[in-house]
């Protein structure tokens, strides 16, 4: 049975079947009434106390197809197939209940042990490279140290979510030190990342790597398009994003008057901007004492590698699915449906180094789970998620195959339709084909 979910020509396109053989089915018709809201949701929300990245409402959505063409049974894996964009037959409460209670426990001593581990590795690598001072060693150092800078970022990211510890002051102090050391404004980025979590999957409201509406895409000049969609430029976007955000959005992570922030967050933004400037001062002093070439080799090049890791990982957590996954507008969007469009990725040997941030689906739904419990929490939640969870392709030992995924996505995922509450990425080549067909 041929079923359509939004085309490349008019916002309705057939979902592409996976090569492994599973078919794709349509969600239950959106005009049918949703099932009753679960009364326990409000209590669960209070228990979470997700101050940083919580959904404002929790709901379990059930839809029945009265014509016998969909519904919860089909979404769960009937012979008719599965559509990842269908409203799931479960809610956040069911997922949370499946995760062991100890996975929610934050151990500040354990969290600090990871900080100590990473800082010692960073200092050890720098000392060893400076002592060797050999062009045979420097490339290895840059790759290793850039990866460790990325690991420091992930720990600071955990501080921003409150998953590092239950002590806000400890989270703030550690987060400022870690993020400032790699030139990230802690509070500025923390707040914008909160916006990303609260609105992921929403075309207009998402903050990180969100899709461009076709009208905005068409307004970009060729150079901007090349910088956004041609390697390696997208992997160097993070510093520009901090200063100017993404196309279609204005503001700066350093400016307390930016649209990113609420008036009561001005002091937080000024604090993180001051910390960022202090690190700039430290680097300037070290450059004066040690010389610019030494700082270039010890810090600047690893910083660029770190930026590439950050853009690489964050992009792939939200793009490059084997099948096109939806983006939402209006009433079709929900916190749960948006979170379920994220992707887990396997980074091989890097998984432990960057604190299992590849286990991204559960992290997006429940960002206060500490990183050292994410793998266990994900395994426990899989029976509930069912086909709404896509197993990551195994990477051994390094994730070079993900470079192919990235390249394909940059070629295919350009923009979404200007209209429609469920839309899918399209590319210029697809639009051209549609235009030729209509002629």
From TrEMBL:
Belongs to the fatty acid desaturase type 1 family. The keyword Magnesium does not apply. Pathway: Lipid metabolism. GO terms for cellular component: membrane. This is Omega-3 fatty acid desaturase, chloroplastic. It comes from Aegilops tauschii subsp. strangulata (Goatgrass). The chain crosses the membrane at residues 138-156, 227-244, 273-291, 298-316. GO terms for molecular function: oxidoreductase activity, acting on paired donors, with oxidation of a pair of donors resulting in the reduction of molecular oxygen to two molecules of water. Signal peptide: none annotated. Residues 39-127 form the Fatty acid desaturase N-terminal domain. It is found in: Membrane. Residues 134-389 form the Fatty acid desaturase domain. Its main location: membrane. Keywords: Membrane, Oxidoreductase, Transmembrane, Transmembrane helix. One of its GO terms (biological process) is lipid metabolic process.
């Amino acid at each position: 049975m041929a079923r359509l979910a939004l085309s490349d020509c008019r916002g309705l396109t057939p979902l592409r079947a996976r090569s492994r053989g599973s078919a794709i089915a349509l969600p239950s018709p959106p005009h049918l009434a949703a099932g009753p809201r679960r009364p326990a949701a409000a209590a669960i929300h209070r228990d979470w106390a997700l101050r940083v990245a919580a959904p404002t409402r929790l709901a379990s959505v059930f839809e029945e197809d009265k014509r016998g063409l969909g519904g919860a049974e089909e979404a769960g894996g009937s012979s008719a197939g599965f559509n990842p964009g269908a409203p799931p037959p479960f809610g956040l409460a069911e997922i949370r209940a499946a995760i062991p209670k100890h996975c929610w426990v934050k151990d500040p001593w354990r969290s600090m042990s990871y900080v100590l581990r990473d800082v010692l590795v960073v200092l050890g690598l720098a000392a060893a490279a400076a002592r060797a001072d050999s062009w045979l060693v420097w490339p290895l150092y840059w790759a290793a140290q850039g990866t460790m800078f990325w690991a420091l970022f992930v720990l600071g990211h955990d501080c921003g979510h409150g998953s590092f510890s239950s002590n806000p002051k400890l989270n703030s102090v550690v987060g400022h030190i870690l993020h400032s050391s790699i030139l990230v404004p802690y509070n500025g980025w923390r707040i914008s990342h909160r916006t990303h979590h609260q609105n992921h999957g929403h075309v207009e409201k998402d903050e990180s790597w969100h899709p461009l509406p076709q009208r905005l895409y068409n307004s970009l000049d060729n150079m901007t398009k090349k910088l956004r969609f041609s390697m390696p430029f997208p992997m160097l976007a993070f510093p520009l994003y901090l200063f100017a955000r993404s196309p279609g959005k204005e503001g700066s992570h350093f400016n307390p008057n930016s649209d990113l922030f609420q008036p009561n967050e001005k002091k937080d933004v000024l604090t993180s901007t001051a910390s960022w400037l202090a690190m700039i001062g430290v680097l300037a002093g070290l450059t004066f004492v040690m010389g610019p070439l030494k700082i270039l080799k010890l810090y600047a090049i690893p910083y660029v590698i770190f930026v590439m890791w950050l853009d690489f990982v964050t992009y792939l957590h939200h793009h490059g699915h084997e099948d096109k996954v939806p983006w939402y507008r209006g009433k079709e969007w929900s916190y749960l449906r948006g979170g379920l469009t994220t992707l887990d990725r396997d980074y091989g040997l890097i998984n432990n180094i960057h604190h299992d941030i590849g286990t991204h689906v559960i992290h997006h739904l429940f960002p206060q789970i500490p990183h050292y419990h994410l793998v266990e929490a994900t395994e426990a939640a899989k029976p509930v998620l069912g086909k709404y969870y896509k197993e990551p392709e195994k990477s051994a030992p390094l994730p070079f195959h993900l470079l192919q995924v990235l390249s394909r996505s940059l070629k295919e995922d350009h923009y979404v339709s200007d209209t429609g509450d469920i839309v899918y990425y399209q590319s210029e080549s697809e639009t051209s084909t549609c235009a030729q067909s209509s002629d």
